[in-house]
Amino acid sequence: MGAIALYARKTARFDALVESATRVLREAARDHAGTIVQGTSLGVEDMVITDLIARAQLPIALGTLETGMLHEQTVALIPRIKDRYGIDVEVYKPQTDAVIHFVKTHGDRAMYESIDLRKACCGIRKIEPLGRMMEGRTAWITGLRREQSDNRAEVPFTELDAQGRTKVAPLADWSWADVWHYVQLHDVPYNPLHDEFMPSIGCAPCTRAIAVGEPFRAGRWWWEDAGAKECGLHTSQGEDDDPVVSRLPEPAVSMIGDRR
Ligand code: SF4
């Protein structure tokens, strides 16, 4: 049984959420005309945002970080976006020399050895390419939701990032049920790994399936403490303060087992 069957549910506030998210996107596109990009992880939230952008025909560029370590199912979504929406996705890859040097020095399993090495890998494969994506840009759109983790429990719709650029989270107040209802309603393309109990999908070596009741991001860097579970793309002051716990909810129609 797939994620739509398990989680899609129309909540009482769904229509208002769609209207609000579209308004947030419209205002961001207006305020940052020509200098705004959706930094899509190709996760389901970002696919919903791309659909909202396309539906409203907003002048917002799309960019993604192809780390060289993504699942093939994730990479396959890039041409699907072009096919479905007619929008080119800017693909940012890490510097080849930096990757070769890192792997030669630390091996290809360095991320499991220490948080510092894991963050160094994220630095080369994600943070540096993100810097190139953001060159000349004043705003970026992300799929962050408050429900995703304790660290994200107070994500605002717009904030300034550490570089002073506007960071927009149009789905900040959406629930997991809202996201999947939207996917079902509009037949949004999504990563089939979401059907394999991976609500949060990153690089292949750093993502595993989770079980009901585990935190949404428990499958990311699962060998580390919860407080370290960010790659540096979305860390900012105060994110670690909120005690709210957000977990993969019970599916509406049947239990799913522990697929780890
Ligand atoms: Fe490297 Fe894992 Fe970070 Fe991907 S998520 S860049 S593989 S440490």
User: CATH class, please?
Assistant: Alpha Beta
Point out poorly predicted stretches: 236-245, 253-260
The CATH homology group name: HUPs
Q: Give the rounded overall mean pLDDT.
A: 90
Helix content bin: 25-40%
- Compute the separation of the termini in Å: 17 Å
Strand order of the largest sheet: 3-2-1-4-6-5
CATH architecture: 3-Layer(aba) Sandwich
Small-molecule components bound: iron/sulfur cluster
- Which secondary-structure class do the elements indicate? alpha/beta
User: Biggest sheet: strands, sense, closure?
Assistant: 6 strands, mixed
Instruction: Bin the strand percentage.
Output: 5-15%
Q: Total number of helical segments? A: 8
Rg of Cα set? 18 Å
How many structurally independent domains?
Answer: 1
- Write down how many β-strands occur, each being a DSSP E stretch of 2 or more residues: 6
Protein traits:
260 residues, alpha/beta, 8 helices, disordered C terminus, binds iron/sulfur cluster
